[in-house]
Amino acid sequence: MKKFLTLESYLAEHEFLREAAEFHFKLEKNLSDVQPLDFPPREKVLELVRAEKIPLLQQENFQPQILDATEKFLPRELAEKLLRQENSSVKKFCADLELNEVLTRKIFWAAVDKLIPAELKLWERDDRQENYCPICGRRPVIAHLKKLNEGRARYLLCGGCRTLWNWRRVGCPYCGNENLEQIHILELDNKMRLDVCDECNCYLKTYGAEDEENIYLRDWTTLHLDLLAEEKNFRKCGAVELE
Ligand SMILES: [Zn+2]
Ligand SMILES: [Zn+2]
Description:
alpha/beta, FdhE-like fold, binds zinc ion
């Protein structure tokens, strides 16, 4: 039988990630009481997002319940700006209150992740076909190539609320470039590669295996690949600490 890595054994092999791991475990622990909110059933949500062509949490009806729930962690006004991705106001607000902006962003999106029910976090091909998250509207941070019948399907993972949605197999989700000659692949690790777009210079970390999603579908577990990409002057997109 094939042996799969646990997060703990992965960390033992990647000691340099220990600090990042401790931070994220602590964050999860602090949010352990946060329960998923009551949203309409899945079918209704699909219908609403398709009809309005607006991600669920960008629809005004659904913002108050998120803001009520995050109020115990962050000022409501700041959470509202984070949710709407009003980046320059977020920056100013954090500076005025002397809050660490990266930490604030991480706390907010980790809470939103927990507030979204699991049944809303997987969108299949027929559900929607956009390059941004159907739930919160953020750009993806990681892709997952999953086996599907004879071939493979590509899913994009939202770095904010951690929804996965099926998207076309080829193309850059950041600028829309679909020219295969303008996208190159860097194999840096046997499970995770980088798809780099020559058009916009952004890269997408892509997990090409199965069963270790718990490790590879977390942005911080492959920070070393981000460092390698940074050395080559490629741009990271979609991460919660970024705009
Ligand atoms: Zn999202
Ligand atoms: Zn691009």
